[in-house]
Amino acid sequence: MNLFDIYDLMNITMAKVEGPKRPLKEKIVQIYEAFIQGEDPSLHNTNFWDEFFLLRPNLYFLENQFEMMTYEEVSALKETINNLFYQCVRILKDGNQIRSMNALQTLCALVHGVYGKTHVDYGFDVINLLIGFSSAEHLMQTLIEQLSHILSHEYPPSLKCLVLKFLLILVTATENVSQNTLLEYLMMNSAFEAIIQLLNDTNSRQYHGYDAAANPYIVKLSIIDNEMSLNGFGQVVSQSLSDFNRKFCEEELEPHYNFFSSLTTFIENMFVSEERESDKHSIRANNAVLLALYEVVHLNRNFLITLTHCQVDASGSSASPSPSELIDVKHSSVAIVETELPPSNLLVTFLEFSSIIMLNTKDESNVNTCKLCFIILTCITEDQYANSIIHDVNLVYNVQLHRMLFFFLIQSRCVIEKFVHNRSNSYQPLACPMLDLMVEFILSHMTKSLPFELYHLCLGVIHRILCYQKERTCSVTLSVERVMDSPYHID
């Protein structure tokens, strides 16, 4: 045994004697734990709070503790929370910038944590737990006055940003504004003049305004002109949307698709609850991909060429197969050859995807996805170059739109109209299926609870397309009567 072996053996023996070392806790965490246990560390230390606010707050630990505690446990700490809130307000008048920033961060965590534990219907619980009824009015007046003082005087921009963030937390603490009782104090003691003063000053306006925190990724995305990069971006989005379309078609075509089965399904759905309807399809849209598509369509005009021109993806099909092709795929192991599929592009795939999302707007997540789809279509139809492409008679595609069975009244007669997949096999400019999709939404979603926001976006898309056609004196082969009559069905 050499000297190194003896040294290693001694280290192992000493480690066994000492036992495993526990990770050291931050001093601020130890103080938080004392607060949670109902202790008051400031009783025997007159300088405790001055020292406490020199420590950097651990917001992650503090918010986690609120999440783990029940409402009863939080209520038991009312006196501790009231005292901590009072000390945060008091320290803001101290003038020390480090203490003020730490106090504001602590206030943010307290407001967020208490609002997360109080009952939604009882807003006064927040006032009682945070401040206490007896001192609420005076303390909130002092707090807002001090926040206004920081905003309107020479303080570091980082401290002013923190004040604005805290005010934002106060305003948005609850989904229902009428249940946010702290807003009453903000109305009685206005910080409006201080905020307006920020806007009046050029430097503060640039620092705290909308463009203060520019997203470098968005800036770079808006100036990309590399064709290969844009095509790659489009292929990723197209593949995700195509997978969604394919899975939906496989579910819809199982076991058989005919008129009577569709009619039976429609009648059953009239008596099915919204919960069952929303769970009908297990597949879910990838909204992250849609957000990426929105950003690039909204910011980068170079992407419009990628959006509207034919794409070929070596890793998969560029479009969803027709229903008959899907049936053949399901009952045979022979894969569809890519060259047998009709030409497609990202916009074709997106229109098919949108028609699927439109089928079920009882589900809130689908409503949000549908809204995002309509916003993307709005961005496309707002661009003159994109309009020229979708109206180009030399660029024609066959778009598969998925439709729903619905009832509507025409001239006092009840008419049952059935739309099946791929109603028309003709190739048309992309403006035709886009208008057809919007008209389909208007006619098939006339429910008691009308989705006004979706209708507003839908009519906006139709309006922009028709304005372009009138301006350029061009027309597309689509039933003009159906387009013009569709808004009257909303009445």
From TrEMBL:
Q: Which InterPro entries match?
A: ARMD3-like, ARMH3_C
Q: Where in the cell is it found?
A: Membrane
| Swiss-Prot/TrEMBL keywords | Membrane, Transmembrane, Transmembrane helix
Task: Say where the protein is mainly found.
Answer: membrane
* Cellular component GO terms, alphabetical: cytosol; membrane
Query: Mind telling me what this protein is named?
Result: Armadillo-like helical domain-containing protein 3
Q: Which organism is it from?
A: Caerostris extrusa (Bark spider)
| Signal peptide bounds | none
Pfam families listed in its UniProt record: ARMH3_C (PF08427)
Database matches in PANTHER family: ARMADILLO-LIKE HELICAL DOMAIN-CONTAINING PROTEIN 3
Which domain of life does the protein's organism represent? Answer: Eukaryota
| The Armadillo-like helical domain, residue ranges | 428-472
